[in-house]
């Protein structure tokens, strides 16, 4: 059943041990489906078990509720090994704003996937939204220069859309122009 905990609605929870046969390694599987509520839904992500993968939300403000599906696999036979997890952030007409710059991406819809330390979207569709009233597609992928150092990952964010110059600089620009950008989030900063 549904349960509400501090602005987070838990809509589904499951705990399962797939194999209880003595001597056969098994895993503990935990599945939780959440729906955020309230004025500051990204605060849950920053404090959640996937906080290392969503550090970008330290710089972003999300408006509107979204769904969060968490799947954890704990290796019972190897308790010193970290859990394996897959998660999805499901956006449904959310608005996103950089906390230090008053530019907003509105009407975001799509899925952000998290698998271990990798963050991605569907590379064909991505996450769809609007920037200054014009369509915008956001695609995310993660690369690792050294697979043994997942903390040294690079998260690549690709933006593809259009900009209405009159809404960006009303007294200086006019017309709509195509726009593409790539932002690389690195362990020690960001490249644009």
How would you describe this protein?
The protein is mostly beta strands and 192 residues long. It is 5% helix and 56% strand. The protein is built from two helices and 13 strands; from the N terminus they run E-E-E-H-E-E-E-E-E-E-E-E-H-E-E. It has helices spanning 42-47, 165-168, and strands at residues 3-5, 8-17, 27-36, 60-63, 67-75, 84-98, 104-115, 118-120, 127-131, 134-144, 153-164, 176-186, 189-191. Strands 1, 2, 3, 4, 5, 6, 7, 8, 9, 10, 11, 12 and 13 form a 13-stranded antiparallel sheet that branches. A hairpin with a 2-residue loop joins strand 9 (127-131) and strand 10 (134-144). The longest helix has 6 residues, at 42-47. It is elongated and about 75 Å long. Residues 1-5 have low confidence and may be disordered.
Structural class: mainly beta
What's the overall geometry?
Answer: elongated
- Amino- and carboxy-terminal Cα gap: 44 Å
**Fraction of residues in helices?**
under 10%
Which regions contain 5 or more consecutive residues with pLDDT less than 50?
1-5
As a percent range, the share of strand residues is over 45%
Q: Say how many strands there are.
A: 13
Would you list the SSEs in sequence order as H and E? EEEHEEEEEEEEHEE
Main beta sheet: 13 strands, antiparallel
Mean pLDDT: 79
Q: What Rg is obtained from the alpha carbons, in whole angstroms? A: 19 Å
Number of helices: 2
């Amino acid at each position: 059943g549904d349960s509400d905990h501090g602005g987070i609605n838990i809509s589904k929870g499951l705990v399962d041990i797939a194999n209880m046969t003595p001597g056969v390694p098994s895993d503990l599987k935990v599945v939780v489906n959440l729906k955020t509520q309230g004025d500051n839904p990204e605060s849950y992500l920053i404090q959640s078990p996937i906080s290392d993968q969503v550090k970008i939300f330290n710089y972003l403000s999300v408006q509107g509720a979204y769904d969060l599906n968490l799947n954890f696999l704990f290796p019972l036979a190897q308790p010193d090994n970290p859990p394996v997890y897959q998660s999805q952030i499901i956006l449904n007409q959310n608005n996103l704003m950089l906390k230090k710059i008053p530019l907003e991406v509105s009407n975001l819809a799509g899925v952000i996937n998290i698998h271990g330390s990798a963050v991605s979207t569907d590379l064909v569709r991505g996450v769809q939204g609007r920037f200054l009233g014009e369509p915008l597609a956001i695609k995310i992928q993660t690369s690792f220069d050294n697979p043994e150092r997942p903390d040294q990952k690079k998260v690549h964010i690709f933006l593809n859309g259009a900009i209405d110059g009159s809404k960006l600089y009303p007294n200086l620009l006019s017309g709509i122009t195509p726009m593409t950008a790539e932002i690389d989030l690195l362990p020690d900063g960001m490249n644009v």
